[in-house]
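Hi R.,

Here's the chain you asked about this morning:
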Amino acid sequence: MGKGQSEVLSTVILVATILTISAIFLALSMMNMVRTSTYYSITYVASFLTNIADDLDTFMLSPGTVLTYPLPKTGTGVFNTVSNECTITITTGGTEILREESAALVYGVPPNQYSLPSNYAYVWRGTNKQGYPVTTTNQLSLVLKPSGYTPMGTITTVIQYGYGQVDGIAYGTYIILIPRVLVLTGPINYVYIPTIHTILNTGRNTLYIKIITISSTSITLNQPMEITENCNNETSTATVPPGTTYIININIGMGMG
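And the predicted structure, written out as tokens:
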């Protein structure tokens, strides 16, 4: 091979190497941009769901209230309502006397776009059993039982998890909005049970929420009752002392169109 040919070949190899390295850096840069964009989208959705939770707590005892929200167009994740994600039970003396199911609102991101460890969990909005704000699920209680009626805490909670499946769909990370049970004890006990039910699922442009009905029943027992709520593998309990207890069921409709 002549000297000229050797120099040309060396130049071709050098150019090919530079182009390959540039392509790798470009791909890495694009991946980083996607991850950064997804991270900020998740933060924005968490704030969006927190605002919804604020409104739910405000209007929960106002039947007939209708709330509508344009759903954020993040381009990275999707919203879903998941039926029967939460189960609430009341037992006394080992006998179940009430069982309620509740849906949940979920925003999830595909694993190939953004993923966090499967043991990741962060409470964007929630409290412990006494009503004090927390950020970890090991402190969170799905049954709120404030002492002395105050602080009331927040009934609707917003939690972000890492990699996992919800209703058979795999997410790299997802945020879930769920209602919690509120227990107030005293001379007369009160148990507030908000449950979400899917009323519409025809699109992904607008979120609709309606406080459909509120009903109340009373029960008088000479033994304590145990309230349990289980949502997305989180379980919490609280005990209601003997006496007269009013159980208030709050039926919340939620859907997308």
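The chain is about 20% helix and 45% strand.

Let me know if you need anything else.
M.
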